[in-house]
Every structure is written in C-alpha cells, then in structure tokens.
C-alpha cells in the first residue's frame, strides 16, 4: 500500500481524551507506521493538552478561531498525505480503521465516508440523547446513512468539494458529509461507513444535550453563533 494518511484533530482543552485518541491512531497505524502523519490543531487550550501531545510524534499547530470548519481546513492545508482523515479529539478509532479506509478507497468504488459510532458506556442519558438525535437528524442518519465524528476521503476529493464550509459555525460536519456523498454519487461512487469509532460520554452522558434541547435545535442550521458557542466552543470541559 502506497497511501499516506494525514489525520487531523482539532483540540480545545482535551487533556482527558487526547491521549486515548492518539493512542488509538498509533494502534491503527501498525500496518503502515511510516505512512501516517498526525496533525493536532491546538485551539485556545488552557489545560495540559499541549503538554500531552508534545510527548508524541505529531505535528502541532495553534489556531484560535472558534470555527471547527476553519480548524479542519487549516489542518488539511498542512497535510502531505493523499488520504485525509478528520477525527474528534474525544473519540478513538478501531484498530482496523486505517486498513479498512485504505482498502475501500483503493477499490475505486468509494468516494470516502464516515464511521459507525459507539459510546464508551451506555446509560439513560446516552440512550435518551441518541433518541433525541435520531428524531432531529432522522433523514441524515437513517435515510442517507451519514455519520459524524470521523471523515475520510482522498485529499484531491476533499479539495474538490472545498473542504468544510467555513461559513457554518456549527453543523459543518453534516454539511461536509452531504456534499461528499453528493459528489461521490456524480462519480458513480459510494459513501461508506467504516467500523468504528468510540466517542466519549462527555455531552451525551451528562444530560447536557437534554438540558439544552432548544439550543441544540438552533445549531442545526449552522448559523446561530450564540447556540454554537454554548454547545461546542465554550462547552465546560
């Protein structure tokens, strides 16, 4: 396999999770150790995130913009790999994720895609939040089979669709998934879901989304800055 992966991770005060995220990438990289670059974008960190990532062989950049689309695009501009992967700092990939991604892309049948999602533990808050998300995003998650949390595609296709939409302060991930799938359909290619990422219970497991349903509904359109600040950028880690 001659592919090189560029894995982009925006991180805002992620000292509790970034080590596990990076560790999962290292395990998934065992079949291609010299073909993976990890790009961490430190965003307004005031905890030990920077200290932790400096202990690992990753490329570190700082960017203070409160815009996840801009942070991911910034990371993509630093990338030297032909495959772009983005993953949230509080998520970790399965051991076979990179191999699965490379195999699918190299068939020529896939434009890219996302990943199935598991939670680090299941409790009542997680179950109710999943139900809430399922109602709000039924069309995207169940009819279109889109996912969030991790994305993968060739860099040339990432660039072709313009990366993430920086005009969106939130919901940029679903917008990217929709455009990537639509672009793939024009090329006669599928949007795939690899197995799998595990994500933290940080927001799903502490009733945060349930207690902020009105705010959560506002972030769906991607334009409400106040709602996005509360749900994402100034979330109390």
UniProtKB/TrEMBL annotation:
SUPFAM superfamilies: Nucleotide-diphospho-sugar transferases. Keywords: Membrane, Transmembrane, Transmembrane helix. Residues 6-155 form the Glycosyltransferase 2-like domain. The chain crosses the membrane at residues 122-142. It holds the Pfam family Glycos_transf_2. This is Glycosyltransferase 2-like domain-containing protein. It comes from Candidatus Kuenenbacteria bacterium CG1_02_38_13.
């Amino acid at each position: 396999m001659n592919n090189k992966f560029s894995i982009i991770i925006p991180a805002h005060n992620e000292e509790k999770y970034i080590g596990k995220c990076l560790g999962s990438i290292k395990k998934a990289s065992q079949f291609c150790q010299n073909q993976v670059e990890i790009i961490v974008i430190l965003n307004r960190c005031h905890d030990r995130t920077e200290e932790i990532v400096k202990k690992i062989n990753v490329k570190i950049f700082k960017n203070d913009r409160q815009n996840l689309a801009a942070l991911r695009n910034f990371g993509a501009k630093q990338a030297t790999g032909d495959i772009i992967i983005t993953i949230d700092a509080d998520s970790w990939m399965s051991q076979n994720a990179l191999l699965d991604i490379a195999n699918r892309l190299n068939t020529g049948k896939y434009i890219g895609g996302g990943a199935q999602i598991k939670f680090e533990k299941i409790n009542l808050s997680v179950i109710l939040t999943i139900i809430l998300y399922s109602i709000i995003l039924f069309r995207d998650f169940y009819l279109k089979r889109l996912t969030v949390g991790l994305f993968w595609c060739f860099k040339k296709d990432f660039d072709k669709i313009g990366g993430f939409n920086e005009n969106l302060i939130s919901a940029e991930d679903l917008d990217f998934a929709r455009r990537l799938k639509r672009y793939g359909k024009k090329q006669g290619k599928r949007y795939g879901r690899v197995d799998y990422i595990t994500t933290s219970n940080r927001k799903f497991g502490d009733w945060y989304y349930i207690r902020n349903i009105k705010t959560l509904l506002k972030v769906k359109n991607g334009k409400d800055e106040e709602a996005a600040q509360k749900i994402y950028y100034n979330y109390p880690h």
